[in-house]
């Protein structure tokens, strides 16, 4: 898992699973503590995601809301969206809508 922070955005790439949840969680909370802007977690380059990783994102979203912040997921591919739907965690996280192409 590669984690790159660019302003209020965290870009993740690789496999987001139980082995990488601690590093991702730490990066998200550091960003929430250090910025007043909305935080975006970009999952465009995430190849696989598991339930533990989804729970990290859901809990971080809830914590951000409690602290007056906003956390949004960007670039959720079909596999990520499917896991969010199957786990029913899609009710707890905000997924950025893709811009319509002409």
Question: What name does the CATH topology carry?
Answer: Transcription Regulator spoIIAA
Strand content: 25-35%
| Major pleated sheet | 5 strands, mixed
Which parts are unreliable, with pLDDT below 50 for 5 consecutive residues or more?
Answer: none
CATH class placement: Alpha Beta
As an assembly, this protein is: single chain
Strands of the widest sheet, in order across it, are 1-2-3-4-5
Separate helix tally: 3
Pfam families: STAS_2
Protein name: Anti-sigma factor antagonist
Domain STAS: 1-102
Family: Belongs to the anti-sigma-factor antagonist family.
Topology:
Layout: E1 2-6, E2 9-16, H1 21-34, E3 39-49, H2 51-66, E4 71-74, H3 78-87, E5 94-95
Parallel strand pairs: 2-3, 3-4, 4-5
Antiparallel strand pairs: 1-2
Q: Overview of this structure, please?
A:
The structure is a single chain. The mean pLDDT is 89. It is globular, with a radius of gyration of 13 Å. A five-stranded mixed beta sheet has the order 1-2-3-4-5. It contains three helices and five strands; from the N terminus they run E-E-H-E-H-E-H-E. The longest helix has 16 residues, at 51-66. With 102 residues, the chain is an alpha/beta fold. Helix 1 (21-34) runs parallel beside helix 2. It is 39% helix and 29% strand. It has a single domain (2-95), classed as 2-Layer Sandwich (Transcription Regulator spoIIAA). Strand 3 (39-49), helix 2 and strand 4 (71-74) form a beta-alpha-beta unit. The termini are far apart. The protein has helices spanning 21-34, 51-66, 78-87; strands at residues 2-6, 9-16, 39-49, 71-74, 94-95.
